[in-house]
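Feature request disguised as a bug: please show the residue count (284) next to NAD(P)H dehydrogenase (Quinone) in the output. Example input:
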Amino acid sequence: MIVVTGATGHLGRLVVEDLLERGVPAGEIIAAARTPEKAADLAARGVQVREADYDRPETLATAFTGATKVLLISSEPGNRVAQHRAVIDAATAAGVGLLAYTSILRADTNEMVLAADHQATEAAIVASGLPYVLLRNSWYLEVYTARTAQLVADGAIYGAAGDGRISGAARADYAAAAAAVLTSDGPVNVAYELGGDTAFTLTELAAEITERSGRPVAYRDLPVEELEKSMVGAGLPAGVAALFADVDANIARGALHTDSGDLSRLTGRPTTPLSDAVAAALKA
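Example output, currently without the count:
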């Protein structure tokens, strides 16, 4: 049985859908969710829906009963190292044959503040002795395309990423990679560096939005400190603004760029082009 944690989230739902499309019987998929009621539609299709709250380890032990493979989808920043360790402990107790984890690109060397929790989680997974696969994801295209309408209205993208290239891919691409790992007998104790086939800069993103929308959108590169202050001025909490500014500073240094080709090899198809993602967002 395959467990997908965070199954009611954006990525988790896509993984479950991909598993079903690959022919995994619904009854052999466990959709683990903090609020099972949100997965009622999956239950109606025969998927096993079980409560799994990262902050309540007793629910994890029950959710993982009978599991052979577990996908740990990372939780939100905050208390996630402890939450992830609870999942790792439950997977270990269940004796699963594979633990896959959605990490961040080059987690072992990535200097982003966001990477620290992933580094700690990866270390805990390795120390557990479980067979593992680390799915080190670059950025989701949706990080930008979800704001496309606002970017068009503003006529600008503000950032501090310089000419740093971003190997963005759609959530569906990363979900397909996770499903491929969960349904194959591929190598274990490995890390995949996952990213889109064609990287882009924020200047290129602005140009793509301009072309697709017919409205001028420019990229405005700011010093990191100025970007952070502008986000605070726009109403973001200081800690969140600092986190986002740190992401851009590290993008400028190449932290979210990879030319590994791992993502398209795992999925067996090209990754979603930026142009397609922008066009879809403008139609939404």
